[in-house]
Amino acid sequence: MENTSKNFSERICGLLSFLRQTRNEFELVSEEMDDDHVRMTIRGLAQETNQYEQELKSQMQTLEIKSLSLPGIFNYEELLKSIHTIIYASSIKEVLDTCTRTESFFEKAYRSVLNEYFPYQCLRDVLIYQLNGLKCTFMKMKLLNSVQ
To answer: How far apart are CA 46 and CA 21, in angstroms?
Structure first.
C-alpha cells in the first residue's frame, strides 16, 4: 500500500507541476499577442489554470499529501512548444488548432491521474470538475471564435 500511495502522490504532484508549467506558458504567450481577442482568451485560460493549480494545492494540504519536487512525469516540452506556436499563428484557425492540441494534453494529464488507483473521492471529484471545466473552456473558445 505504501508504494501505491507514493505513486499516487507522484501523479498528483506531477499534475500540479503540469498546471504550473502550462499556466506560466499561457501567461508568457498572452504577453506576446497582438490580437486583443486572442490575448484575452489565452489570459483567461492562464487564470483558470492558476485557479485549478491553487485548488489542487489546497486539496493536497487538506489531505496531507506532501508536495514532491519531481522530474517531469508529463512531457511538457511538446505541450509548451504547442502553446508557444499561438504567437506565430496567422489565422484564428491556427490558434484553434493549437488549442485543440493543448486540450488533448490536459485530457491526458488528468486522465493519467484519474484512471489509476485513487484513495480520495473528494479529490477525484475536484479533478473531474477541473477537467470538465477545462473542456468547457476550450469548447467556448472554439464556439466564440467560430462566430467571428
So the answer is: 10
**How many CB atoms neighbour CB 94 within 10 A?**
13
Measured from the Cβ of residue 66, the count of other Cβ atoms closer than 10 Å reads 9
Exposure b/e, 113-138, CB count within 10 A at least 16 = b? beeeeeebeebeebbeebbeebeebb
Residues whose CB is less than 8 angstroms from the CB of residue 114 and which lie 6 or more positions away in sequence, other chains included: 124, 127, 128, 131
> pLDDT tens, 85-108?
887 877 777 877 888 888 988 999
Q: Where are the alpha helices (DSSP H) in 33-120?
A: 36-62, 76-84, 92-114
Asked if 47 and 85 count as a contact pair (C-beta separation under 8 A), the reply is no
CB 53 within 8 A of CB 59: no
Spans of the chain, pLDDT less than 70: 1-6, 68-75, 144-148
Read off the amino acid at residue 100.
T
The per-residue pLDDT for 144 is 65
C-alpha cell of 22? 502550462
Grid coordinates belonging to 97: 488548432
